[in-house]
Amino acid sequence: MARILVAGETIVDFLPDSTGSLSAVESFARRPGGAPANVAVGLARLDADLEFWTRIGGDPFGDFLAGALSERGVSTAYVERDSDAKTTLAFVSLGEDADREFCFYRDRAAETRMEPGTIPDDDLAAFDWVHFDVLSLDAEPSRSAALDLAKRAREAGATVSFDPNARPERWREFSYAESAREGFALADVVKATPEDLREAGFDGDAPKLARAVCERGPHTALVTLGGEGSYAYATADAPWATETTEATHGGYDVDSVDTTGAGDAFTAGVVAGLAGGETLADALAFGNAVAALTTTAAGAMTALPTREEVADFVESADLDEDVGSRE
Predict the structure, then answer these.
(1) pLDDT digits over 189-213, tens only?
(2) What pTM was estimated for this model as a whole?
(3) How many Cβ atoms from other residues are within 10 Å of residue 312's Cβ?
(4) CA atoms 20, 23, 29, 35: torsion sign
(5) Which domain holds residue 136?
(6) pLDDT tens digit string along 124-173?
(7) What is the per-residue DSSP string for 257-298?
(8) Count of the separate structural domains present in the chain
(9) Residue 70 lies in a domain
């Protein structure tokens, strides 16, 4: 079984009790979150062999997150606690269609203080796959830490995956577009939405966007399309392709309750599939199933399904009918 390392932030999401603007919301439910943390938990729920490198505050919110990761089967071997920093908080607003926007509280937060070299070369050599995302690149020293990790992982022969997860409200000191392209240059696999890629300066439909990403260095690009499914493109350099390969999957019709974390769930599913030796098409379908099932319950990390739940979902799903929602 491939051994996977995920790196990046773990934060607290506050989900509203009603749709609409945050200015009108009166109460929130606290949930563990953060894109890399969601991916790590998603992989753990899918029985992957993984470790997660993150840094959380020494405050009560950090206690909450450390417990949430442990309860969901994520090893705490590389979970750092920072007694001199707070844990990032994100307040989420939900639209009528379950889409969301974020308001972050993260000035000098613990996750921005991840340091280069924390994962020694000898430890890193034990991993077959390393995943990181662009949100580690919006502050120092976490920016240098993430780029250093990706560079050393690739030099060690690991497959490196990258998520250019655009959050315009997060970018102040550094450029999102330049940071995304730096990530592309160090990655083998990129998962993105069309919006992520347009914010990075690319244009076109999913096939054109995927090819543009691969021209920057990766051999595989996966473009998620919301309710329309996803598209994947791989060059002949990809381990799962002997020649240039394309795959599409139309997704699953479900009654979405909350789309928070759906992209992270997709990433976890695709990484689990590709790292486990599946074909590009099969991994794409599996990622769509994990993402669709995640949207049928509230929360991001708390809604991530097990491998058995995904198998049952795929078996029972009718692409022409709504599957329903989970409690």
Answers:
(1) 999 999 999 999 999 999 999 999 9
(2) 0.93
(3) 13
(4) positive
(5) 3-309
(6) 999 999 999 999 999 999 999 999 999 999 999 999 999 999 988 889 89
(7) S--TTHHHHHHHHHHHHHHTT--HHHHHHHHHHHHHHHTTSS
(8) 1
(9) yes
